[in-house]
Design brief:
The complex is a heterodimer of chains A (128) and B (414).
Chain A: E1 2-11, H1 23-42, E2 46-51, E3 59-62, E4 69-72, E5 80-90, H2 93-107, E6 111-115, H3 119-126
Antiparallel strand pairs in A: 1-5, 1-6, 2-5, 3-4
Helix pairs in contact in A: 1-2
Chain B: H1 3-29, H2 32-53, H3 59-78, H4 83-93, H5 106-114, H6 121-132, H7 137-143, H8 148-164, H9 174-196, H10 207-223, H11 228-241, H12 267-285, H13 293-306, H14 315-328, H15 332-346, H16 348-362, H17 366-378, H18 382-395, H19 399-410
Helix pairs in contact in B: 1-2, 1-3, 1-4, 1-5, 2-3, 5-6, 6-8, 6-9, 7-8, 9-10, 9-11, 10-11, 11-12, 11-13, 12-13, 13-14, 14-15, 15-16, 16-17, 17-18, 18-19
The chains are: A alpha+beta (128), B mainly alpha (414).
């Protein structure tokens, strides 16, 4: 089993109904996403999933110096930000891509699939 | 055995066995990098040993055994793969065998991994040529006119993604194989076309690429002999490649199909291509799936290569085939080619009207302006033809085509 992060991006400024055009669309997406999450749990893919508050609510911290430097707002200045994500386990990329396609349909957003580092890849990093 | 006989045996073994050796190692060790390196090591060993020891009776077996030993040596030498690491890799690369999937040749697994849709098209092409075709990084770089370091980086990055993202090393399930195979065929046809209609550089033809694409096409047919589109693509490439030597004149100018010396066409390739097209016609008549895009294109090329002179071309048959192709794939390029057949059957005016409808989509495509120029010229509209030739010359990156178009433009009256 390999672990993947499925990320969903949305605009930095959210409207009245988040990234959705109407209340109905928002509720439908929530319901579909909920059903998809249950399926993930049922089939043993689910590790974690949640949505995030708007990027404008984030605080960036640089603790590398003596006193941590705090900055109001997200680290990256882009028009689109991470809006939520799943962490799933899948046999291989094909299975992860199929889950991502379902996830994208459910939440009405584009999903980026990215593998987590594995024990093997970390070992390779630690090689002399 | 003479030196040249050994050299020939090595060349032949490289051509016939490279993909098999890499694919077998990839399954056994679950690591494409290692598979590629160890396969290359085995061929280096053959170059060193065969001149002294003689060519082994079973070169493929010798290479497989030697490559396996080289891979084990590398693993031991680098001693970087702990038992845990190896176990982790074997899991992702050794999924349970698919009961419903097609034949289990390792090379077919390699094909689908190299042409995986999660890889950029440039990466798919590069990996396919390196791991299946056995071309060196330098050869692939020069074929696509990029720096060797750029190409090496592209291949390394693709292999790193395959490993990190756990791209499967297997033949897709029966329900996915159609779509995935279409992607594989597209990669092979892209390689062929880049060789046949080279888009940039000094050489109008890159025979290294056309030959490699035909070889990959033959390999796919060996692996999937019953797939109509696999056979169709091979037939299409053979029937196109058969005309290669008459396609560029001695002074480096493109020669259109109409003006080609048909006696110079490669009869053996045409016979082989026609046999494949007939095989598909019989299969479809016997209830096989209706022909897809490559089978239709192959059939169109079979009609062209069947005519002893350009005048004898059965254009109504060609138009019929383009109609079927347009029904499958109503893309502007298919409609452009169909319009050329319309011009032959019904005159240039009708074809020009169709081209006008495509001008938005194809304005940046040299072949659109070249076709339009030829039609305008036939209508006697020299001024408009000149403008179209100007656009086509401007847009083409192929030196033979530029030379041809320039001469045609020069022959206009006004």
């Amino acid at each position: 089993m390999a672990r993947y992060m499925l990320s969903v991006f949305g605009s930095a400024e959210r409207g009245e109904f988040g990234d959705y055009p109407s209340r109905e669309a928002m509720l439908q997406a929530f319901a579909d996403t909920g059903a998809f999450n249950e399926k993930l749990q049922h089939e043993g893919h689910f590790v974690f999933a949640d949505g995030l508050e708007p990027a404008t609510t984030s605080t960036t911290v640089d603790g590398q110096g003596g006193t941590p430097v705090l900055t109001d707002g997200p680290y990256l200045e882009t028009k689109e930000h991470l809006g939520g994500f799943w962490v799933v386990e899948a046999a291989d990329l094909d299975e992860a891509l199929a889950l991502a396609a379902e996830a994208s349909r459910a939440c009405r957003g584009v999903v980026e699939v990215r593998p987590f580092q594995s024990a093997a890849s970390i070992e390779a990093l630690l090689e002399p | 055995m003479t030196g040249s006989a050994v050299e020939e045996a090595i060349t032949r073994a490289h051509r016939d066995e490279w993909a098999r050796v890499v694919a077998g190692l990839a399954r056994r060790f679950g690591d494409l990098d290692l598979a590629e390196e160890a396969a290359a090591d085995a061929f280096v060993a053959a170059v060193e040993r065969w001149p002294h020891d003689g060519v082994p009776p079973n070169p493929g077996g010798w290479l497989t055994t030697t490559a396996g030993r080289k891979a084990t040596d590398r693993l031991r030498r680098e001693s970087r793969r702990s038992a845990r690491h190896q176990a982790a890799q074997m899991v992702s690369y050794n999924p349970p065998p698919e009961a419903t999937g097609p034949v289990g040749d390792d090379r077919l697994r390699l094909v689908f991994t190299c042409c995986h849709p999660a890889l950029a098209i440039e990466a798919r092409i590069a990996l396919t040529l390196r791991l299946l075709g056995g071309l060196t990084v330098a050869e692939i770089a020069s074929a696509f006119l990029v720096q060797e370091t750029t190409m090496a980086q592209r291949i390394t990055r693709a292999k790193a993604k395959i490993k990190a993202a756990h791209l499967p090393y297997r033949v897709p399930s029966a329900e996915d194989i159609g779509e995935r195979l279409a992607g594989v065929l597209a990669v092979v046809y892209l390689v062929f076309n880049e060789g046949y209609l080279t888009s940039a550089g000094e050489n109008p033809l890159r025979t290294d690429l056309t030959e490699e694409a035909v070889r990959l096409g033959r390999l796919l047919r060996t692996l999937l002999p019953d797939d109509g589109e696999v056979t169709g693509l091979l037939a299409l490439m053979l029937l196109t490649d058969a005309r290669r030597s008459s396609r560029v004149s001695r002074n480096g100018e493109l020669v259109t199909l109409e003006d080609q010396d048909r006696g110079a066409w490669d009869r053996a390739l045409i016979i082989e291509g026609h046999a494949l097209v007939r095989e598909r016609l019989a299969a479809v008549a016997a209830g096989s799936e209706p022909p897809g895009r490559y089978q239709l294109l192959a059939a169109i090329n079979a009609v062209h290569t069947d005519a002893a002179t350009a005048d004898e071309t059965d254009w109504s048959q060609i138009l019929l085939l383009y109609d079927r192709l347009a029904a499958l794939d109503p893309s502007p390029i298919v409609r452009l080619n169909r319009a050329v057949a319309v011009a032959e059957l019904n005159g240039p005016d009708l074809a020009l009207a169709e081209l006008d409808r495509l001008s938005g989509a194809l304005d940046g495509y040299h072949a659109f302006h070249a076709a339009r120029a030829a039609l305008l010229r036939r209508c006697g509209r020299d001024g408009a033809a000149r403008a179209a030739y100007d656009r086509a010359i401007d847009l083409t990156g192929n030196p033979a085509e530029r030379a041809y178009l320039t001469r045609r433009r020069g022959g206009l009256v006004s």
